[in-house]
């Protein structure tokens, strides 16, 4: 081992991806130890980091070229010892000079005072805070001012963040390309308007008010004036990925104007958005011709009819038709219907004909259907003729049977099939299709 060329050793190290294997490799010889130390660019530590400050200093010394560091205390208990605190963060910031990507998750001993040390990380471009209770708006402003190279900021579960002066500052500099805000109670959809000119460069934006769940509340924009919509006419033509979850909108508050300005949009996820209608999707299809991926998660809402159970999902085949006509680059489609009862098929406003029309009009390669009660064996027959379909995932699609499954044996490009809670398929039919198509199940 000691006689192997260094270039060969470096190539061996680069091809090993599992951290446990890398740790074992470093024990083989001193040369491997040195090469592995110099070529380790990422590390993830957490509950085993004790004593935290001393171990962090040791890690920075052993791996001088670390670029990506994740500190995750998920599942931490008092028996694991004290967590990394502000002093430990100062060691990381001053000793890890190549740091470009930092994630802090469930770090209870780090607060606003410790974030000032991140200004020493001159190369830091990506920063993620996940459930760090000691961080407030003041700390985020410190980060915004001190981290001059920051281009990606992800905030998850920061309950002490109230004001958005840090967001205004970042917007005025126009440096961010990615902004993720999830379950931060003090940040509303309307606060994000203060990002201002920052929208011009932003390429990825994710906003989830309630962390993957939805609630129905009357939206309130304190500064909103009826029929006075100029404030929403911001430029976001660089935006390529947009995810909105659990928000409530009104016709005059933002959504339609937001989508109409995202001319470069390639991936759109609208999950449990209350207040979205066909007109919004038609606007989207006209302005976002480059759309490649679409994820819609819908719930039935009261339709205002006379019947006591007049609940329907808000989008109809008109949305699917608009997408089929204008978004001819669409490759990935996910349709999820939550809390739609099979005994009430009218709760889902999409029809099988609308979905088939979309599949026949666009080069759909990946299709995910969850709770699609309208989708039956005739729909499976149409999928068998889809020229581009490679991956199909069905979950809780109760109207499909073995008859429909057997149609998939003739799907020209199908290579991946995932089935969950589809009780009407027999093992025999699935195995028959798997053998016919040599599928990965």
Automatic annotation (TrEMBL):
Transmembrane segments: none annotated. InterPro entries: F-box_dom, Leu-rich_rpt_Cys-con_subtyp, LRR_dom_sf. Residues 3-34 form the F-box domain. PANTHER family: F-BOX DOMAIN CONTAINING PROTEIN (PTHR13318:SF216), PARTNER OF PAIRED, ISOFORM B-RELATED (PTHR13318). This is F-box domain-containing protein.
């Amino acid at each position: 081992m000691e006689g192997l060329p260094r270039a060969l050793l470096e190539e061996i190290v680069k091809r090993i991806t599992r951290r446990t294997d890398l740790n074992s490799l470093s024990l083989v010889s001193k040369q491997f130890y040195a090469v592995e130390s110099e070529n380790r660019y990422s590390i993830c530590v957490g509950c085993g980091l004790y004593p935290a400050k001393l171990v962090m200093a040791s890690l920075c010394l052993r791996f001088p070229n670390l670029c990506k560091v994740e500190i995750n205390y998920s599942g931490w208990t008092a028996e694991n010892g004290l967590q990394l605190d502000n002093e430990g963060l100062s060691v990381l910031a001053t000793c890890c000079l190549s740091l470009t990507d930092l994630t802090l998750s469930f770090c209870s001993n780090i607060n606003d005072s410790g974030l000032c040390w991140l200004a020493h990380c001159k190369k830091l471009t990506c920063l993620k805070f996940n459930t760090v209770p000691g961080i407030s708006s003041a700390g985020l402003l410190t980060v915004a001012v001190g981290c001059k190279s920051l281009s990606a900021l992800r905030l998850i579960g920061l309950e002490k963040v109230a004001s958005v002066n840090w967001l205004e500052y970042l917007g005025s500099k126009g440096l961010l390309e990615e902004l993720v805000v999830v379950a931060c109670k003090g940040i509303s959809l309307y606060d994000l308007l203060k990002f201002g000119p920052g929208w011009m460069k932003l390429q990825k934006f994710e906003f989830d008010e309630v962390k993957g769940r939805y609630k129905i509340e009357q939206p309130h924009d304190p500064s909103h004036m009826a029929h006075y919509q100029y404030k929403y006419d911001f430029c976001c033509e660089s935006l390529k990925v947009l995810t909105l979850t659990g928000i409530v909108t009104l016709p005059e508050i933002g959504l339609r104007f937001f989508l109409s300005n995202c001319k470069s949009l390639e991936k759109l996820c609208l999950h449990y958005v209350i207040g979205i209608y066909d007109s919004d999707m038609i606007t989207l299809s006209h302005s976002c011709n480059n759309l490649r991926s679409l994820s819609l998660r819908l719930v039935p809402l009261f339709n205002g009819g006379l019947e006591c159970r007049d609940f329907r999902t808000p989008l109809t085949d008109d949305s699917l038709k608009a997408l089929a006509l204008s978004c001819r680059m669409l490759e990935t489609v996910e349709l999820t219907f939550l809390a739609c009862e099979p005994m009430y098929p009218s709760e889902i406003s999409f029809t099988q004909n609308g979905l088939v029309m979309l599949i026949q009009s666009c080069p759909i390669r990946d299709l995910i259907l969850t709770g699609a009660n309208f989708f039956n064996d005739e729909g499976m027959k149409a999928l068998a003729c889809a020229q581009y379909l490679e991956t199909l995932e069905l979950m809780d699609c109760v109207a499909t049977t073995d008859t429909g499954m057997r149609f998939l044996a003739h799907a020209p490009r199908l290579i991946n099939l995932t089935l969950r809670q589809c009780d009407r398929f027999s093992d025999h039919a699935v195995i028959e299709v798997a053998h016919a198509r040599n599928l990965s199940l």
